[in-house]
Write a structure and sequence with these properties.
Blueprint: E1 2-4, H1 8-19, E2 24-27, E3 40-42, H2 45-51, E4 54-57, H3 71-76, E5 82-85
Parallel strand pairs: 1-2, 1-4, 2-3, 4-5
């Protein structure tokens, strides 16, 4: 499970994923937060997109994050991976809603 944006919701997703025995990869701007979870690892965004089977986005749509999902990142993902977000405003390259 790859988690982008490790705040309250991202942390809860990590806890649930860990409880199911998943390896958890996470990224946030400040990756200094300690976590008691087993199978947890802080990684850079590109590595998270390359290694994750499921990527769950938990970051607000801002000027800094609006271009986070781009063609390069999508090409880094496994062909079988899923990309999840609850923010309806995120768009795929080309303007398609995510």
């Amino acid at each position: 499970m790859g988690i982008v944006g490790y705040s309250r919701i991202g942390e809860q997703v990590a806890r649930i994923s860990s409880a199911f025995g998943m390896k958890v990869l996470a990224h946030k701007r400040n990756m200094s937060v300690n976590t008691p979870l087993a199978n947890f690892q802080w990684v850079e965004q590109d590595e998270l997109f390359e290694r994750s089977d499921v990527i769950s986005m938990h970051c607000p749509l801002t000027v800094e994050t609006e271009k986070m999902i781009n063609a390069d990142r999508l090409n880094r993902m496994k062909r079988s991976a899923f990309l999840l977000t609850s923010d309806r405003r995120f768009r795929l390259p080309g303007g398609f809603p995510l």
